[in-house]
Prior knowledge:
Elements: H1 2-42, E1 52-58, E2 64-71, E3 80-87, E4 90-97, E5 102-109, E6 112-118
Antiparallel strand pairs: 1-2, 2-3, 3-4, 5-6
Amino acid sequence: MYLKNFQNILFRKQGVMKTRKILLGIGIGVLILLFFGVYKLSTFTIFDDEFKVVESIKIPDKNYIIRIYHIPSNASSQSYIQIRKIENGVEEVLESYEQFDHLNSYSLKKDTLVLTISDLALS
């Protein structure tokens, strides 16, 4: 009888320990998910923050390149097209077309670049 009571107490302790381990595992899992959620919320960006090269044009018989960029929108401006000249590693902004955000086509005639651009938001 004394041995049986001891076994019952021992089995109850083992059951309590098993329950504690399960609860501890669930608690650790919840903490990991909580930290992951906080990380994702703190690194969330609403707007694209990188400029995209739409076209890169090597000008014949010149030592520079013309790049056409799409500049994404942000809190204070809409997306737009920007033309830059890259010469000897230095970028110079030639023109910004803030009312347009899409390059339809371009052509190069001698030393003149002809652009056809549009605003996709209005079309």
